[in-house]
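re the bet — no i am not wrong, look at it urself. input seq straight from the record:
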Amino acid sequence: SVTLDKALIHFKRTTKEWNYTFLADYIDNLSSGKSTKQSPLRLGDVTIHHLHFESIDQWKGEDMITDVAGAEIKFNKTDFEHNFISISKLKLERPSFSIVNYPGTRTSAEEKMAQMDTSGFENKMECRIAGLDIINGTFSSKRLPNDTTGNAPFDENDILFTSINGQLANFILKGNELNTQIKLAAKEKSGFEVKSLVANMKF
């Protein structure tokens, strides 16, 4: 088993290139067989205390921050050479995810070219999770500047869901497609409450 305490992952860019490009190239070499043959990584049970992940995209104008107070992961199989991860159980305690959109530093010409680029991000990894439990999660989304006027109880440019509890079953992320069955409950700061959301999700 493996235990991680106070893990920090930081991605950032102020131009088109990310600060982790070298790592992406290394993983791509692993999957393409260009690197030296290595023994498969066997993780087994992994426990995480206090995980912080942040993706700061000043070029596009989008920051994503994730915090997890505790996580328990039971791996079935990890095969990075063939882009495959299988997890039997994933438990997240007090996870929080926030996304903030704002005017980025890229020029209007760069933004137009990015919108015209149809290649997009190609996820080569397949990840399967038999069961995922979420305990007391939080989700927030903000758009700056916020031009919303009036006193509407629900502000689509400033969303905050708390007390997110639920389960995801048969979670499959393959390429850029995600399939799972969800059962969730949550509260929004406006007073709107999701008592029970049960659905098959695909996107």
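see?? The beta strands are 2-13, 45-57, 62-79, 84-101, 126-143, 158-174, 177-188, 193-202. told u. also Residues 21-32 form the longest helix (12 residues). so pay up
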